[in-house]
Amino acid sequence: MIAFESVGKTYPDGTVAVADFDLEIASHESVVLVGTSGSGKTTLMRMVNRMVDPTQGRVTIDGEDVAATDPVALRRSVGYVMQASGLLPHRTVLDNIATVPVLRGTGKAQAHERAAELMEVVGLEESMASRYPSQLSGGQQQRVGVARALAADPNILLMDEPFGAVDPIVRAELQTELLRLQRELRKTIVFVTHDIDEAFLVGDRVVILKPGGHIAQIGTPEQILAEPADDFVRSFVGADRAERRLHLQQVAGREVVVDASGRAAGVLEQGGTP
Amino acid sequence: MSWVSANLDTIAEQLLAHIAQALPAIVLAFVLALPIAKLANARGWLRGGLTGTAGLLYAIPSLPLFIVLPLMLGTSIRSPVNIVVALTIYGLALMVPSASEALRAVSRETLQAATAQGYAPWARFWRVELPLAGPALVAGLRVVVVSTVSLVTVGGVLGVPSLGMLFIDGFQRNITAEILTGIVLTAALALLLDALVVLGGRLALPWASGRAPRRRTAPRDTGQEAAR
Ligand SMILES: Nc1ncnc2c1ncn2[C@@H]1O[C@H](COP(=O)(O)OP(=O)(O)OP(=O)(O)O)[C@@H](O)[C@H]1O
Ligand SMILES: [Mg+2]
Question: What residue ranges of chain B have pLDDT lower than 70?
Fold first, then answer.
């Protein structure tokens, strides 16, 4: 479990990135922080692996204050995927994936073996193992980034706009694979994005942030769509957008779901969600 | 060219002396420039000051420096130590600004990513920052190599053995072959060391030449995403 206990961060230049933030993230849960640029998402996420130290309050992992842990050891135990992958350009794909196990003292051969397995897990062809990151497409780089974050089998995965820099088709592919992975691996995931659709897809719960790390609303995607807390949330999630406003029409004896612009979105089945 | 065949021993001696002064100065300048540049980059005000000072150092005329240094170091004026110290100073004047620039050009994002993976500060410097600055450092080192090899000859004026002695002696005694030998060998040595630096850089930084170390994969193997 990760707990943010009234944390705040004021940067040395006086910028108040996060004022007073509380959140508990259960083990195996995936929580998405979503909000406008500068709302403090990255700052909050980085408090978990001590890339940022809060100036107020504390962050605990399983009850233990992270401020009391060795930051280097902590970072090796928490997976981190960043936007534009953050791969080491001078290391091959295989070496990049093996980074954390090697830092932790695993033998190179063993780390490479595990890295090769992970390449398969994230859907990378074996032939890419000896390439450098610059020789991969953006989507492939993000896969390497995800594989690297998984290499030491961390309990916690921090993902800062991991799919922000790839085109929508590749993004959808990567999102689907993340969901598949998460069903198998059941990590505790903190995920940051700008994209509300991505947030609703990936998050068990979604935290909508206003500038200063103020929480506009926390809830499951269903809760947020059903009951937007205020106008900010309503406009942020696009609750007024035509494709979100669905209604039923009877067609040939079945109930068809139609959006506000009259486009058919699907059919209604009894029994609801899987 | 009969002068050359008659004086092979002298030529070899001067060549070796030349190398013996150039190499330590090149290595020292490179090795010392790194911590100085690193320190300068960590402190904004130092960086401007240091790179400015470095530029000024290079403007010191070499002959007076070679003469003044022994007074400061307490060595004899003919001692190769002076030459090495003087050449190191010139080397630093060139290398500190380029090392500072090389280290500064390393992507902060990449460094942060390395920290996030759990690199301790020193490991990050040696295994991430330094290698990534490598190509620019090599470029800086090449300038130092060529400049140092040619500056060693100035010591010849003071009677310190080097290829410079060949053309000074050649001028004094009017032996064209000796002059040419000195000039050609100096240039050849500079080119050779430069080539070695380039080669060393290629071997140490295989990723920078834009090629995979082992097999190159054919385009059809690049997967679906690359095809988009
Ligand atoms: N190192 C820093 N020094 C000073 N201010 C900073 C620093 N890092 C972030 N900030 C400021 O803190 C605020 C929150 O930044 P943060 O990066 O957490 O936002 P974000 O929600 O991740 O934004 P984005 O969606 O653009 O990534 C911003 O106003 C930003 O300018
Ligand atoms: Mg951010």
Answer: 1, 210-228
Residue with CA closest to ligand 1 atom 10: A17
* Among A76, A89, A90, beta carbon nearest to B118: A76
Distance from CA of B132 to the nearest CA of A (A): 7
Q: A197 — phi, psi (to 5°)?
A: -65, -40
Print the domain residue range for B12: 2-105+123-211
Q: What is the reported pTM?
A: 0.85
pLDDT in tens, A83-135: 776 999 999 999 999 999 999 999 999 999 999 999 999 999 999 999 999 99
On whether the CB atoms of residues A30 and A202 are closer than 8 A, the answer is: yes
Ligand 1 site-directed mutation target among A7, A16, A41, A48, most atoms within 8 Å of CB: A41
B-chain residues within 8 Å CB-CB of A111? none
Same domain, A155 and A46: yes
Q: What is the domain extent for residue A250?
A: 241-274
Which residues lie near ion ligand 2 (Cβ < 5 Å)? A 42
Residue B178 burial (C-beta neighbours within 10 Å; 0-12, 13-18, 19+): buried
In terms of domains, do A132 and A249 share one?
Answer: no
Q: Is residue B31 part of a domain?
A: yes
Query: Based on the domain organization, do A69 and A43 belong to the same domain?
Result: yes
Which pLDDT score is estimated for A127? Answer: 94
Do A130 and B215 count as a contact with CB atoms less than 8 A apart?
A: yes
The per-residue pLDDT for range A63-74, each reduced to its tens digit, is: 999 999 999 999
Tell me whether residue B22 is in a domain: yes
In-domain check, residue B156: yes
A221 and A158 share one domain: yes
Separation of alpha carbons A126 and A213, rounded Å: 42
Listing DSSP states for A202-255 in one string gives: H-SEEEEEEGGGEEEEEE-HHHHHHS-SSHHHHHHHTTTSGGG-EEEEEETTEE
In total, how many domains does chain B have?
A: 1
Name the β-bridge partners of A18. Answer: A9
Evaluate: CB of A42 within 6 angstroms of ligand 1.
yes
User: Do residue A150 and residue A67 come from a single domain?
Assistant: yes
What spacing in Å lies between the alpha carbon of A6 and ligand 1's midpoint? 18
pLDDT in tens, B97-148: 999 999 999 999 999 999 999 999 999 999 999 999 999 999 999 999 999 9
| Structural domains in chain A (count) | 2
Smallest Cβ–Cβ distance between B113 and the set A74, A86, A167 belongs to A86
Q: How far is B63 from chain A (nearest CA, A)?
A: 43
